[in-house]
Amino acid sequence: MGNVISYQVGAVENNDTPDPQFKYNLSVNKSTSHSIVDGKETTTSGGVTSVNVKSGDAGINIGGVNVSPQEAEQFKQQLEYDDKAEALREEQVQVPPAESFDDNTTAVLDDLDAGALANAVNLATLGEGLDDDAITEMVSSLGFSDRSSALEVGNNLIKATREPFNRIARSEGFEGDGAWNALQAWNKTEMRNAVNDWINTRGQDSQRLREAMRNAWNAYGRMDNEDLIDELDEQGYDVQATSGGGIAVKGNELKDWTVWRDVRSVFQKRAAR
To answer: pTM (2 decimals)?
Structure first.
């Protein structure tokens, strides 16, 4: 049996007869349930937020619920509406917004040597960093005749990919360079793979990158992470250690002590405003 169906009598008709009719308000919490009310057996499964059932003249079965003939069409429409609304809500939750690169950025990336691009991602994510030599090598397949032009295009390309990365980071609760630092502190190899997947799809698929950010967020919130503690202190938050070495945060929009895992949703809402 799933979640509970709740019944509440909304009205009583023909109360002065031996067979009064009870009008019930039925609430269903998106699950399969079974109940017997007023001598009538009802089985129903999700998709219904509310429906009126008259016990005296119910005779049409829709979705496991007996409804009166005059209520049948309205009930059917309500079922269809609720199913569509639920499907839309699930789609909105499960599918993150696309962060595709702009056409110019995509065109430049498509013209780069795949090996040189992968090597640049490796250097950036594994902590080596991209110096001028690495940037020049990354765009060498474009055939620049002078180093300064290669560096300009390379740096512009890095900036162009950093902007959508930062938008994704903000939507996951991070600010500034927080996501990049958290990913490197968490797992550099997984960070490299996630960024590579994201780059290779030209920003179309950010799911692995987002998942890496969420794991990195949880691992980043520790009392021994001095950089994070200092950053939170500068932003006006109070921080205290939890029993497992994590942190709880209070201040600004956090009126009560909130463990780090739950702080992410608060920061996500702030970034969405």
So the answer is: 0.64
